[in-house]
Amino acid sequence: MSEQLNLPHVEETGLTDAQAQMAVEAGRANTVRQTTSRSIADIVRANVFTLFNGIIVAAMILVLLAGSWKDAVFGFVIIINTGIGIVTELKAKRTLDRLSILVASDYVVRRSGRDTRVPSAGIVLDDLLWVRSGEQVPADARVVRTWGLELDESMLTGESRTVRKREGDEVYSGSAAVSGVALVHVNAVGEHSYAATLTARAKVYKKTVSDLNKGINTILKFMTFLVVPLCALLIWSQVRTVGGWDYAVATGSWRQAVISAVAGVVGMIPEGLVLLTSLNFAVAAMRLARKNTLVQELESVETLARVDCLNLDKTGTITDGGIAFDRIVPLDRDAPVSPRTMQALYDLADEGQPNATGRAILDALGAQGVLSGAVAARVPFSSARKWSAIAYGPSADEPSQGGAGVWYMGAPEVLLAALPGDHAAVLAQVNDHAAEGSRVVLLARADGPAPQDFADDPSLLADARPVALVLCSERIRDDAQPTLAWFRDQGVRCRIISGDNPVTVGAIAAKVRLTGSRKPVAMDARKLPEDVDELARVLEDVDVIGRVLPDQKKAIVDALHVGGHVVAMTGDGVNDALAIKEADLGIAMGNAAPATKAVAQVVLVDSKFSHLPDVVARGRQVMANMERVASLFLVKTVYSALISLGVVLTAIPFPYLPRHITYVGALTIGMPAFILALAPNTRRYIPGFLSRVIRFALPGGVAIALSVLLSSWLLPDIMGWDVSRPADLAALRTTCAIIVFALGVFVLARVARPLSSWRGILVALFAAAGVIGLFIPFVARFFALSLPTGRVLTATLIALLLAALLFGVCHVAIGFVGRIFSHDKPTRQS
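Structure for Haloacid dehalogenase, as requested:
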């Protein structure tokens, strides 16, 4: 099994299977109590035990005590909505938990003299663990033997420089192996190690602070302070309208006062808004999961909607990671490729965990009969250093092969810049091959023996010289070009950020039409300015950046933030982890290193770049539709609060019953909101959710409130109604309910625009449903509604006409005031 895992041969046997089992039973396994999403109890608690559910239940109990169960129907609507929220989130939880298994990583431990794969939770205290390039260290340990292990400890220390580990050094969970391989002795597991906090970060459900959440929370906090005192004032005012407390208690008319007060309270509470928000996030996560996209934080869906800048890692995103070895080009054109050069190239690629280029070289040269040579010292490839090296010892048996020597393989620009002499001609040759889309690697050689500490302190020897160019090619993903075209159409600026030659990456970018018909502008990362403001200005004109170091990827993300962009970053390597963590939205491929997946908010499980449009489109749908839905709910909140305030100040009977607002709200807000919230929508979300929702809700809310209050004040005098008589009060309330319904349809029509599609049919259907309900005896009786006739019909029609006029005037007036203030802002700032 050691050979299958491509691990060095060691004599250590490690724990026996029986000892490992005893450690598990003793609780010394690397287990951390964590989940991929909220627990069932958390989901139920979050959907049931909310402040506003409590207010609704209390209001429902008051109405039931008052003996009018029909006016308590609004409480059952809340129960149904809560149930929908719980069921949907439970379904999302099952989907996410199932997908998380697909992205879980296994590790290799040495037990009973064999190398065995185990999950992270299967590692126990005192295990001998293999740490390999590309893996995140799962438990704290001490290095027993090392073959060039280098760790990126930036997630622990913030220092992006890689650290080379020697025997006896400590390694901590949460660090990432950048190159090499080592056998380590585990000395801390589970809750006692860094992994307890780091690896759990990507899998534990957490509520992120977002523009949407902040806006909704602001609305809810305001309502918290408004509802309770206004409810008390409403009860007091309604008791006064029926003759005072003594009379109300003696005659039982307090019941009607309570019901009227509840009508105002229920209208003010946007009860479905919070539920609909979590429902939308959960539905989005489920829909993405069906396309093998794991959303590790549901609230990151909002970020998807705001992305306007997408940084792409070339390998694994634009290309499929597959590399094909083409040929070796000797720099001495008169000399053929020597067996010694092929042997050195094979040995350089023959690392413990070779990268894609190394594997392609091994496969091609191995097919030609080249076998591993006797390497005296090795410096594994490092993404920070950009080269690897091997040293051969003096060989008495092979004097013709040159004896001792050091060979280097790496990025041509980096090696040539460090080698003595003028290599302009070689660099021009490199650029010519790279311009054709080839991946170019330089071979260099120094004849002298390697220093004693060469493996621990690698350096380029002074007499090193370039020998040959190694040409490889990358396979471009079939879905890359159409996916990039989609992002261009959606106004998302895509950049390719890669550690490879900028000319090579630029050629690939041109093939996939990264910038459409325009030629991509490529730049070498070594020429990037260090000042973040200057870097932000440079990036505006650059499409492709090559030879990027891990800390530079992070700096690029920071600079784009300075430019006011919302940045998404994709990647699959350890060197992408810092940038993915820093980006507003980190997207990891399913075959990414565990360290990279741990900090990403979205994981493309099957590593298909073509899923990204679904990811972004789903986020835009949720946010744009939630803005529509929030506007609907807030209109009701505005007019209910204003009507309640008018009722308190003028001591009139409340103009409608709780069952009226239940009927109107269900047809103009509740049911349409669920449909609109799940409708297609690709508009890019722009911050400012709360201000836009308030600007939309104020005109409609004020218009409805004024229409109802004016009708309540004027109609009794015009019609000769005595509101102390139940029949006249019922006629007034029916008229007011019809006004609220009609204007509610107007608001729904504004929210649902454009009406030329199915949205117009949606508005028409709910408007028709409301009217038809008046003709159904059971519905009319249950909701205390009746068709106006005679003079009442005339008064109702006139009231509706004036209400429609008032609706238009309010929208024009508030819109005009809003435009004045928006035009004033630049002047004040200047």
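The chain is about 50% helix and 15% strand.
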